[in-house]
Write the structure tokens for this entry.
Amino acid sequence: MNIQFYKYQGTGNDFILLDNRQLIFPKNNTKLIQQLCDRRFGIGADGLILLENDKFSDFKMVYFNSDGHESSMCGNGGRCIVAFAKQLQVIENETTFMAVDGEHYAKISVEGIVSLQMKEVDEVKMAADYVFLDTGSPHHITLVNDVKSVKVKEIGSQIRYSDLYGKTGSNINFVEAVSDSLFAVRTYERGVEDETLSCGTGVTAVAIAMHAIGKTTSNEISLLVEGGELKVIFKKDGKKYTDVFLIGPATFVFEGKIELATT
């Protein structure tokens, strides 16, 4: 079985995109997804995303981490599937689509900048040395003095697999304050089990967390990641964060065909 695939990246967070409106892709084949995402034996990506039909919106996003398992919301993947939907002419410049955490609105500019509305956040857990919140995926956030020197994979995996988060785990973010409205972020992603060049739900969580603990007074925050720069904007309504948007580029890299075993 030959499959047409498309490769996209959002600030270095890269994905395999497949048009699965005919429901031909074997979604339960964990090993196949692992192989496709493998950077030596497959196409190579942090995750694989299926675009499927949806009765109540323009399309449905189904996201798998590179470990082959379907996962929680992926912000950069969400931005990339919007660009992919435009390439397929499923949408024009605006869309409403369904993801695992519910419905999302997004718009894409002529330059390929995607503004993706994220879920509202009504709870921010503040501990002595970290902040935790869910922005479609769970995120543990730790402030550091020098984010470049952090051993992200080593320390991130220790926290991810600690008793703090049990079997489900959490994504782990390390943050350095550059200015009132600029933060540098590095993220260890569960499911990838390594540092990625960017994490969309992660920077969204960081922006809200920094506002919640008083490290910023701005509701328009820029975030420097290893793969570039993203922006997060939001409104504060009592204890709730609403109208949360993740903004940044979603870039087409290449397309091709790959032959898949049918067994």
In short: The chain has two domains: 2-116+250-259, 125-246.
